[in-house]
Amino acid sequence: MANTFRASLYTPLDIADSSTARTLWRLIDTPIVMPARFDSVERARIEFDSQSFEVARDLYSAEDVLFIKGMNAKFLAMFTQLTTTLAKWTFWWELGVMAGPSREKWLSWFCELVRQLPPYYGFACSASEYEAKHKVVNSSDVGNSIRMAGVSVADFHKFLPGVYWLTVFGAELAGHFGSKFMLLPDVRRIEIQPSQVAILLDSPVLPESMEERLLVEAHLAEILGAKYFFDLVKINDEREPVPPLARVMREASE
User: Fold this and answer.
1) Is the pTM of this model over 0.90?
2) CB atoms within 10 A of CB 26
3) CA dist 196 → 96, 147, 191 (Å)
4) What is the Cα–Cα distance from 66 to 41, expressed in whole angstroms?
5) For residue range 57-88, what is the model confidence (pLDDT) as tens digits?
C-alpha cells in the first residue's frame, strides 16, 4: 500500500437507488479508469459494461458492498453502506500517477464525481499519509494490534476525520466554514459547483517530511476550527460535530 493513493467520500447517496447507480456507472466508465470487473467481493468476477449498473445496483441492495476494478493505474473502488443513511466510498490507484502529468486528469475526474454525486465530506492523500494520521498500534503481552482511529461511522457523527492533501467540503460544511477558506495559506481552493469546496495543498502528494505535512494540516484545521477535526496527536481532546452537517444527518436518520 506504500505506493497507493486513496480517496474517500462520506455520502448520503445509496447505490441501491437506480439514478445514483446509473450516474456512478457513467462516471466510472471512462478511459482514465478503464473499468473491467465488479462484484460484492474484492476479486470482482462480473464483467463491467455500460449497462451493468442494474446488476450492480441489485447486488449492492443485497450485500451493502460493491467493488469495482479498473485496468488503469491498478484502480480499485469499494462502496460500503455504513447505515441506512450513510455510505463510504473509497477509491485506490497508483500513487505514481499523482506525481506525474496525469495528476490533473485524475483530480478532474474525482472532482467531477464529487460534483455529480455530492458527498457530505471527502479526502484524498497517499496511503502513507493516511496511516500517519490514523494508525494506532497497541502493544500487549500477546503482541501488537493495529487499528485506524478517527474514521469509523460513529466517529463521523462526532467530528471530521481531518484535513488532508486534498479535502472536500460538501454543501453544509462549505457553508459553515465560508470565508475561513480564504484564510488558509498555501492551498489551492477549488470551487465545485453549485455549493461544494475542495482545498488542495500547494505541495507534492508525497512530502519530503511526513511530520511537517501533519503540522501543516493541523495548522489548517486550527484556522477552520480544530474542535471539528480528528488529530491523532491529540487523540483524547474533546471534539464537536459541525452543526449544519450534524443537523442534516440527524434529519436524514429520523
Assistant:
1) yes
2) 12
3) 27, 31, 6
4) 7
5) 999 999 999 999 999 999 999 999 999 999 99
Q: Is the dihedral of CA 161, 162, 168, 174 positive or negative?
A: positive
Q: How many residues does the chain have?
A: 254
pLDDT tens digit sequence for 223-250: 999 999 999 999 999 999 999 999 999 9
Distance CA 34, CA 111 (A): 18
Q: How far apart are CA 150 and CA 224, in angstroms?
A: 18
* DSSP letter string, 79-146: EEEEETTEEEEEEEEEGGGGGSTTHHHHHHHHHHHHHHS--SEEEEEEHHHHHHHHEEEEEETTEEEE
Look up residue 123 and give its amino acid: F
Round to whole Å and give the CA distance between 161 and 148.
Answer: 11
Q: Are 39 and 59 in contact (CB under 8 A)?
A: yes
